[in-house]
Amino acid sequence: MKLIPETLGGRLFALILLGLLATNLTVQALSGKGAGSMHQLGVDQILRRYASDFRVLSACTQGCPRDQLMEAMEGEDFHLTLADHIALHEMDEAEAAIGQRLEQLIDTTGTARAHVLILDPASGNNRHRTPALQVSMALPQGSWLIGTLQPVVRNGWWKPLGFSLLASGLPVLIVLALFLGRLLRPLQTLANAAERLSRGERTDPLPETGPRELRELSRVFNQMQARLTRFLDDRTRMLAAISHDFRTPITSLRLRAELVEDQALAAAMKRTLEEMGQMVDETLQFARDDSSQEDTRVIDLVPLLTSIAHDMQLQGHEVRINLPAASPYRCRPLALTRAVRNLADNATRHGTCTTLKLLHDGRQLRIEVEDNGPGLPEVWLEKAFEPFSRLDHARGPHSGAAGLGLAIARTAIEAHGGRIRLANRTTGGLCASIELPA
């Protein structure tokens, strides 16, 4: 069991409670009212009892049943004895104050003086575990009336501590509970905005409100988001401009290839130019996809994957599906569709049968695209995601695209906060797995 709460609110509660506990313990230690200290009200009450018994015994004349009276006056923690003399000692300040109080209660005329001895729990004369009083005063008959008194004490530090902690801590904790949500709300807003930013969404600037530290945190987050957005926009505009500018020289070279008399050389030149044109088209498409800001919304992934499988079946490919009844998910549908379609295109290009699966274990959602093709060498499982990597060279002699399909798929999936991996199947073929946060 964890003693330290994981949430910030829980830690604030625990910290304040520990502070109140330390404060109350310090106050009790400084005030001398810790465990085992005598309670002033208890001392005063027991002194009044001794004073009453002293006055009764003082009035007891010869023939009075003094022993029977003393026995009736005694209690469990109150004992009376008579002595002809006692050993006097110099009283300290606390003992002298108690003696003076006892003399006031008895209302002596100045002839009798009280002698007080505080018996420590460790003393041999004290059979109790708490401090006791031994009070002695001379009766008019000449003997000393010795009373051993057990005053009311604080038997445990938890009794006064519990009351003081409750009285001082409960109002503080109630006020904290009322305002803690309001205090932590900006942090929750920041966490949600950071999560959306990590999934590729652009959020409105956070309101810079609350305490100074939270305002500074919101301001820095807004600056970070603005700089990231500006960097991505500049990059995609530059990529789109460069790809667009390539169209002019490619068109010019294609016209010149028509004038080449050697037909074999002209055909080779045209094939190279076609590949270059295809690379430029895919690069332009990649730039447009990266710069577009599709809204995020909740959709059912089952119809989305079913539609992809149906389109590929219409093209003559064998595509199987293994999907649940429904699977709602918050995403950018066009980007996710493009990513899955690119993986499915690769699967149908290199295998004769493709399978689409959708799995959900509560923590993450996984889309798997399997084929029965030749698979990939281990060194290509990660290298295949690099832009312009030609999987066809690794899996066979077939002509493929420019090599941006997996790069586009990875960009789209990572923008959703997920990841994409390739793995060779033990039964043969390749499995492309998309893992998305639930």
UniProtKB/TrEMBL annotation:
**Any idea where this protein resides?**
Cell membrane
Keywords attached to this Swiss-Prot or TrEMBL record, sorted alphabetically, are: ATP-binding, Cell membrane, Kinase, Membrane, Nucleotide-binding, Phosphoprotein, Transferase, Transmembrane, Transmembrane helix
A Pfam family assignment: HisKA
Primary residence? membrane
- Superkingdom of the organism of origin: Bacteria
> Where, by residue number, does the polypeptide cross the bilayer?
161-180
InterPro entries, per the entry: 2C_sensor_his_kinase (IPR050980), HAMP_dom (IPR003660), HATPase_C_sf (IPR036890), HATPase_dom (IPR003594), His_kinase_dom (IPR005467), HisK_dim/P_dom (IPR003661), HisK_dim/P_sf (IPR036097), Sig_transdc_His_kin-like_C (IPR004358)
- Record's catalysed reaction(s): ATP + protein L-histidine = ADP + protein N-phospho-L-histidine
Residue ranges of domain Histidine kinase in the record: 241-438
What is the membrane topology here?
Answer: Multi-pass membrane protein
Q: Where is the HAMP domain?
A: 181-233
What Enzyme Commission number(s) does the record list for this chain?
2.7.13.3
One GO MF term, please? ATP binding
Q: Nucleotide-binding as a keyword?
A: yes
Name by which UniProt lists this protein: histidine kinase
Organism of provenance: Uliginosibacterium paludis
